[in-house]
From TrEMBL:
The chain crosses the membrane at residues 91-111, 131-153, 314-334, 340-357, 369-391. This is Permease YjgP/YjgQ family protein. It comes from Desulfobulbus propionicus (strain ATCC 33891 / DSM 2032 / VKM B-1956 / 1pr3). The lineage of its organism: Bacteria, Pseudomonadati, Thermodesulfobacteriota, Desulfobulbia, Desulfobulbales. It is a multi-pass membrane protein. GO terms for biological process: lipopolysaccharide transport; transmembrane transport.
């Protein structure tokens, strides 16, 4: 007899199969890279478009006051490009967050209008699964904003200051010619007989009218000009000459071997109302801000001002990240056949954020709020707002709770509705008078009957055109007539039920 087959092989196969199942159970799910890349492409295209549009707007606004500097210093094309590149990072500090939020809103608005979001949800893709590419793009843009805020803006302010000094000194050097009176130094007029190859002067005449009624005349055999970029000053050094001071009837002559005449250069450095060449907190690096704050008394105003600038540069990129994430639920407010409100809402949120940020900064500098808490409070509040809005949209709920909407509508009906109707009536009357046309007659009963029926899907009620709840925010469905609304499972409200009953009685 042949020996019984041992059950070891099936057991091994079972163990192997179980091990494979266990391995497959612990296997990480592969991220949907195709979905992520598709969403990223949909967001980046409107981001770059918004960036170009906003950049052109900011460029034109910035260009008008910049032309005064260009014309005053006679700047060429190359220096103009350098000049604008120095103020470019400060513009991007506001352009990039706005373009990022607009790009997310526009991208998801298009996906919603084309029913692609609906198709993704039907395939089992939730909003949480669509969030990773938005987070990655928002983080990359926030990092870029932080780089501009921390590194490029202080460097640009310092470079702008140095460029202004170089251009002002260059204007003096070009204007200073042998055997010509030079008035490039304002109230100081310089005349030089000869200028050698080493820019040494021979036979110098200087007339100084600064704060005087009579000029202070200086005559020297030789001299030269020295520049101090840090102090924005030019020093005229004169050798072996005389100084003539004429005040009234007295005439004073002073002989000198070496005489220095210091001149503070004041080129037109105002762009709009902002002095971009002054060494303010905006031109300091992060380390310089901390050192400047440490030199002040603790909790003094200057101490808080330097630290507020330090935290401002860190908090603003975080705000850019929060606003970009908030653009996702705002972009989903669009729908086929419904007005897209994402862009207006995004603009309102952006303005409110910067108002809150500026207010908190002023209160922190004044000592009304603790410094760190005040500088980061807007980001905390808008982070909570973003989480709440995303949670409501993910659960297919409106942005604003219905209780809040009803409360606002009640306030509007009680205090503002009559005034707004009167203003609208006056405006329409004036418009008709300007156009020379008659006022539109009031709607008749037949025209009212031709209007669609509005229905509220949350309560299951429909309203007739003459009902007070006809235009309520929750009434998002419309039917051609009452029969169609009843066939869809809706019933009339109390007022409309009474109106239909009276209409039926009069018809009978």
């Amino acid at each position: 007899m042949s020996p019984d087959p041992t059950p070891a092989a099936p057991t091994d196969r079972t163990q192997t199969t179980g091990r494979r199942n266990n391995d497959s159970g612990f296997r990480l799910r592969r991220p949907p890279l195709l979905l992520y890349s598709y969403i990223a492409n949909e967001l980046l295209a409107p981001f770059f478009a918004s960036f170009l549009i906003l950049y052109c707007v900011f460029f034109l606004v910035r260009l008008i006051p910049l032309l005064e500097v260009v014309l005053a210093l006679r700047i060429g094309l190359a220096d103009f490009i350098r000049l604008f590149s120095y103020i470019f990072p400060r513009m991007l500090l506001y352009i990039i967050p706005m373009a990022s939020m607009a790009g997310v809103i526009v991208g998801f608005t298009r996906l919603t209008n084309d029913r692609e979001i609906l198709a993704l949800k039907a395939c089992g893709v939730s909003l949480k699964q669509m969030l990773p590419p938005v987070i990655l793009i928002a983080a990359a843009i926030a990092t870029l904003t932080g780089f501009f805020s921390i590194r490029l803006i202080p460097a640009g302010a310092l470079g702008f200051k140095q460029l202004m000094f170089e251009l002002a000194k260059e204007k003096i050097d070009k204007g200073l010619k042998a055997r010509e009176f030079t008035e490039a130094l304002g109230d100081i007029v310089v005349y030089v007989d000869e200028i050698d190859d080493q820019q040494r002067w021979h036979g110098v005449y200087v007339s100084d009218m600064r704060g005087r009624t009579q000029p202070l005349i200086t005559v020297a055999k030789s001299g030269h000009m020295e520049a101090e970029m840090e102090r924005m000053t030019v020093t005229i050094v004169l050798n072996d000459g005389t100084l003539h001071n004429n005040e009234g009837t007295d005439n004073q002559v002073v002989r000198f071997g070496r005489y220095q005449l210091q001149i503070s250069l004041r080129p037109p450095t105002q762009i709009g109302k902002e002095d971009v060449t002054s060494q303010t907190r905006g031109a300091m690096s992060q380390q310089q801000l901390l050192r400047a704050a440490a030199k002040q008394k603790p909790n003094s105003k200057l101490h808080r001002i330097f630290l507020s600038e330090y935290h401002h540069r860190l908090a603003l990129p975080v705000g850019c990240f929060i606003l970009s994430i908030l653009g996702l639920p705002l972009g989903l407010q669009a729908a086929p056949g419904r007005r897209a409100v994402g862009i207006p809402l995004g603009l309102v949120v952006f303005v409110l954020y910067y108002i809150a940020f500026t207010t908190a900064r002023v209160m922190s500098e004044e000592g009304t709020l603790p410094l760190v808490l005040g500088m980061w409070l807007p980001n905390i509040l808008f982070s909570v707002l973003t989480v709440v809005i995303f949670w409501r949209v993910n659960r297919e709920r409106p942005l604003v709770p219905e209780q809040v909407q009803l409360f606002v509508l009640a306030l509007y009906d009680r205090f503002l509705k009559t005034a707004c109707q009167r203003v609208a009536a006056v405006g329409q009357s004036m418009l008709h008078r300007m156009r020379g046309t008659k006022e539109r007659p009031a709607a008749t009963k037949d025209s009212v009957d031709q209007l669609p029926i509005h229905a509220d899907s949350t309560t299951g009620l429909f309203h007739l055109p003459d009902c007070t709840d006809y235009d309520c925010p929750q009434c998002r469905m419309a039917f051609k007539d009452v029969e169609q609304a009843k066939a869809a499972g809706f019933i009339a409200c109390e007022f409309c039920e009474e109106s239909l009953r009276k209409k039926q009685t009069s018809t009978d």
